[in-house]
Amino acid sequence: MINTQFRKLFFFIFLVIGIVYISNTWSPSSYAYFLKNHLGYSEIKPDFGSARPIRSDEWAVVTPLTQATIRNNFERYNKTSLYQEDLRINYGLPIADWGLIFKPTMWLYSFVNPAYAYSFHWFAIFSLFIAGYALLFTKFGADNKTAILLSFGLYFTGFSQFWWNEKGPLFAFFPWVIIPFFLKINPLWQLSLFYYASVSWLLTNLYPPIQISLAFVGFITLLLLQPRLFKIPTLVYLVIFAGLAACTAALYQYDYLKETSVTLYPGGRHIVGGDVPTRFWLSWFFPAINFSWSYKDLVGMNMSEIGTVGMYYYISVLCLLNYKNFNTLWSDKSKRKIFIGLTLAFFIQCAWMFLPIPAGIGMLLLWDNVQPLRMQFASGVILTLIIFYTANTIGIIFSWQRLLLLIALAAFGWFSLKYTIAPNRWEDLAFIPMIVVTFLIIKNKPHQAHNAILITSVIFGALFFGRFNPLQSARPIFNIKDNEIVKYWRDQEKANNNLLVAMDLPGATANGLGFRSLSHVTPVPHMDFWHRSLPSTPSDQINYIFNRYSHINPYPALQPSLRQADSVEVPVNQFAKTNKAIVIDNYSLELPKQGSFNTEKTYPDAIVFNGWGGWQGEMNSRRIEVMVEPASPQDIEWITMVRLDLPINTDNKISALNGFRLTLPRNDGKLPDCLSLITVDQKTGSRILMENPSSLPYCKPSLH
Q1: pLDDT tens-digit profile of 200-255?
Q2: What does each C-alpha distance from 355 to 64, 216, 275, 369, 690 come to in angstroms?
Q3: Angle at CA 343, nearest 5°, toward 340 and 347?
């Protein structure tokens, strides 16, 4: 009766929270970062928290592709894009085709304003996560309250939060794949629900490293708790329905999978085990040692990459376990089997993360497709199960002696692991007064000790990890009016035969706004397009640069190039008209000075400068004069660059459109002996000399 009442209360609270969340169109999106820093919407900000530039997988890829799908009337092929690409890709998008049946969190897009549909999707993902893992924990003996606390504990960890707004569906759908086998329903219904949940898991977001590692968790869970499934003929039916789920997902994404399999990246990678840094497994027990309160990493990696599944719950239980009662677990055959099974599974996962295991061995579990760092979430689920199952079976002793041991261990962890690299970072020590208060509250209530330390750990996790993702209204993501910058880009698109060639609109953001843009994200390569568009580039070089998942970045270089494994650079002048600088051999020493420039990138055949000029006139009357020694072997070209810092730093006296990039061709890739740049307004005759970087002298004008 109590369990039923608790479930009803929990459901009611979630329902109320959901109504508030969706009515405000909240989401965990960091898209406000793009709106503010790339388009100048300075008034757009989250209702709570901060937009995170590091989460560009979301704000520059997944959210813009969702916008593009909506603008494309939910059709499969993106007619709004220069590349006309297939939107059936690894990221689940609300395409109106048969695959939408398996994307229940996206069903509202066709019926309501997309801001509400987007908000519903993310609240549904959150709800599926909390409810799904809570149900999973109950199968290992947790009561409803403990199960929900464990689920929130898993949610408020670094790996979950630092990847949430892009990989959240991967985490959230997993438990629902195996939950059907615990329901008291006809086996055929169990298999049917398993099939549906599996396809949903694969189509809402396809990322094999996470899904393969979690599939191992699912296998271990079912092997330990539902061994009947692995007996003939049930095993045959299970394999058939698993195969049907895989085939359904593969059929839906057939073209994507076929094209991706022959790319250079991601292609057919085979990964070896090991190389996960020691600090990562230490952060399972001391969860905040690798970053600061303001989410600055302390170990030289970006915030998402240092995320682990760490909780103070782990070391709390290890300090408080009633070890004398361990025989209670070991003497019970069924409990011993579960404990050994979970422990062996965890050590197998650790072996893949920390030992140099050959890809051929990893292939046995398909782990040659799992980067060791990406095993973090799956291993965290298993570790949480081990810690809980042990504590729940043999009990804990929350005495003041054990409390002192826990405090000493927490303090030692902070001092030895964080103070030594960041002596001004004290935030980890917040756990100590929290656990002391917890002890004082429940010292005479030993039956509440387990949940009390779990609550303390969850509160710490919520404080330190729960602030990472913002509460961002989705209204400005889908319902925002064009400002001056966006209008400028629309004018540029029209002037360039309906093609926008814009620098600094990262990822798919331009297409998300409705532009037919050169800059984009193409999950599969469009080799015919690149061969046709860059005829002077050798075919083998085209294949090396573009045969991959690509962030396409227009840039005023002279040749295409590869920036990193998933990012390519294409020359602006092959797709849009650039401005030719006027080469001069003299200028007046009395010219006023305003503006400046710096060296941005150096190539073997060119140098690109980034700067701003003091123009005040109309865009079409702006010119740049150049005096350079030795002379450039080719035309010197420049292009307008949006610089949102200019109006901010000059009290709106200088326009954001006064930025530029200038490409100086060189035969040796070295800086010239001297260089002088002069902005010219042809309408007014104004000529202004720019400030040079300290490493590059002005060219001296002659005296005559």
Answers
A1: 999 999 999 999 999 999 999 999 999 999 999 999 999 999 999 999 999 999 99
A2: 39, 18, 7, 16, 56
A3: 135
